[in-house]
Amino acid sequence: MAARAGVRAARAALSGRAPGARPPTSRDVASAAGVSQATVSLVLGDKWRGRVSERTAGLVREAAQDLGYRPNLAARSLRLGRTRTALLVVPAMTSEFFAQVYTGAAKVAAEHGFGVVLYPSPEGIGPARDPFDSARTALDGVIASSMAADALASIRGSDLPLVMLDSDPAETGPAAHVNLDIADGVRRLTEHLLGLGHRRFTHIAADVDSWTFVVRARALADALTDVPDAELRTVRAELSVDGGRRAAEAALGSPGPRPSALVCDDDFLAAGACKAAHRLGLRVPDDVSVTGFDGLTLATALEPELTTLTLPAEQVGARGMAALLAVLEGRPAETGDLPVTLAVRGSTAAPRPA
Amino acid sequence: MAARAGVRAARAALSGRAPGARPPTSRDVASAAGVSQATVSLVLGDKWRGRVSERTAGLVREAAQDLGYRPNLAARSLRLGRTRTALLVVPAMTSEFFAQVYTGAAKVAAEHGFGVVLYPSPEGIGPARDPFDSARTALDGVIASSMAADALASIRGSDLPLVMLDSDPAETGPAAHVNLDIADGVRRLTEHLLGLGHRRFTHIAADVDSWTFVVRARALADALTDVPDAELRTVRAELSVDGGRRAAEAALGSPGPRPSALVCDDDFLAAGACKAAHRLGLRVPDDVSVTGFDGLTLATALEPELTTLTLPAEQVGARGMAALLAVLEGRPAETGDLPVTLAVRGSTAAPRPA
DNA sequence: CCTCGGACGTTATACGTAACACTAAGGAGT
DNA sequence: ACTCCTTAGTGTTACGTATAACGTCCGAGG
């Protein structure tokens, strides 16, 4: 009660009105302009071509301006059955990568009067409530990044328009896919390492089965099949700096010839790999080359800077939102993979002759 | 038109109903339970103690369950004048710190049926639209982090309930403040460095005038005033790895005795400082100690790991949201500064005797 | 002179919810 | 027998918007 009155008074002050007064409605604008509420709705909704005279339209717009009229979003949503809100499902918001994806999506959304809400990982938000469940009536569509299949189940079951980011294009169900040309990037990265003379590779692989990591692994293996003397091992690692460190220590410390290049599934793992090398008394890139993935700030914060594949995170989000908007309007979504960039930096160099 | 039909069909499928059917409303539940819509509202709104019999309440709940009834949020908002949505204003979403703040706020919000939307920096979202402007009618309150004063102007002017994070407690206007005991943290950090024997300090300071950075500078100066032979210089730096590198190169390369400790305003600056030291052929921590601020993942990704002040980012967000909820309900918000943690790691050591 | 169709608006209604005001029945108190 | 209270609900309304369906005026064509 007190809270409600507080909110109301606050709203009033937004437009410089006296506290206690209601915010202006389309009806207020109507009486100020001397027309009916319906006309206000037509004019401000840009649906008046030929139905309202130029002069009246001007009057309405002026009155709306004077009163500081803002349409009530709740009322509009109720009337239209649409909410102009999309859900972005990400595995974890704490990653800079998904923060950028969100930013890109939010920018495009804002241009179309849409909002974006987040659903940051099933376990992150507390076990008691399923925010997706409670938000269902307030969503127009869902943009979901690559996640474990079971986490997606409840989303798939909803049948809301769904756009998938960086995930298996063969999957049926999603209205659209926004994918990256990761295979091409990995191929270029591998060629870079091969060109430097590397032949013994160890893949520090994420221990989750997201499509994106499956592709990374496959592309790396594919790129090395043509090279007769190349050798590829794989060590799985928890997705964290420390997980990368442990995996790399195992890889570098294991018996047999030491790998000369550690290809890591993301920049955090690569940072861990660099730490592992340091602990074992090896130097990067002189004794071992290390590559990352994602192109986060972290990649240039390290010494040496990481050679990495930079993903256009913001573009992914932007394109995802654009695709959702297209689907909602019945247009075909833009297709074609987004390119990734190979950033060659200090963490890779020619291996020392054995 | 087509889009609207698509959304409607999708909604229907959410509850396993045939496509084309409307989602169930409270009136549908009412007729299924053999009561009036008003009774359904009472029961599901938990306002029926003494007004509806236990038996009838059970019937209503059962019917709601069977039909998969979800209240329509738009209708509820329209009726109540409240939206159960808060705005979180952050300077940039790309930072891990604010991502964590968001996570904390969203968790608490979800527990109370609230949502959180983001307003990621005035310039970040595109110049054409002011999302705060368009969202005003759909907000119950605002949580804003420390920003430049002018960026806050339009928010302050709104008079919506406002909670400020890590900002000047003397500021009037905000309904509540959530602050960190940064002064205490800086004092402990300084004592740590003094204890190691450091006397020549250079503060790599952020070149923005947010309250939090003002406090950091002041606390550092205060902690050194009692130490007669201590010396403090300040170099301002753009808030980025490269900004930190440039500032540190200037500090370490300038004439006169070299500083033995670089106290940086955040972890990115500290990472840049480490790179600068490396470029100048100095070793961290043997030749120069470096400290960070924030305690991001970055701090432990570097080699050596950064000694830093770890801020409880998620707690900040959680407490901010809790404070906003308190204000909205007319309760006093919890007060008291949140503690920060000094994480002593490899980037600080005793200076070499001159 | 009649009517017919633009041009310009208006009236009325529905969206789904929450809450106020009311009622009807049954029992207690006097 | 009368009022008064409690229990257990119901009828109605309002929130603010968008739009379908409906007038009205007026000049032109027959």
How does this structure look, described?
- The structure is a homodimer of 354-residue chains.
- Chain A is of the alpha/beta class and 354 residues long.
- Chain A has 14 helices and eleven strands.
- In chain A, strand 1, helix 6 and strand 2 form a beta-alpha-beta unit.
- In chain A, helix 2 (26-33) packs across helix 4 (54-67), helix 9 (182-196) packs across helix 10 and helix 11 (241-253) crosses helix 12 (267-279).
- The termini of chain A are far apart.
- In chain A, 48% of the residues are buried.
- At the A-B interface, helix 1, helix 5, helix 6, strand 2 and helix 7 of A face helix 1, helix 5, helix 6, strand 2 and helix 7 of B.
- Chain B binds a DNA duplex (30 and 30 nucleotides) through residues 25-27, 35-42, 45, 47-48, 50-53, 56, 71-72, 74-81.
Short overview:
With 354 residues, chain A is α/β, with parallel strands linked by helices. Chain A is built from 14 helices and eleven strands.
Strand order in the sheet with the most strands of chain A: 7-6-8-9-10-11
What percent of residues of chain A adopt helix (DSSP H or I)?
A: 40-55%
Low-confidence segments of chain A, given as residue ranges, are 1-16, 122-129
Largest sheet of chain A: 6 strands, mixed
Q: What's the order of the H and E elements of chain A? A: HHHHHEHEHEHEEHEHEHEHEHEHE
Q: CATH superfamily membership of the largest domain in chain A, which one? A: Response regulator
Oligomer: homodimer
Keywords:
14 helices; about 350 residues; 5-stranded parallel β-sheet; homodimer; 11 strands; 434 Repressor (Amino-terminal Domain); Rossmann fold; disordered N terminus; about 45% helix; 6-stranded mixed β-sheet; alpha/beta; DNA-binding
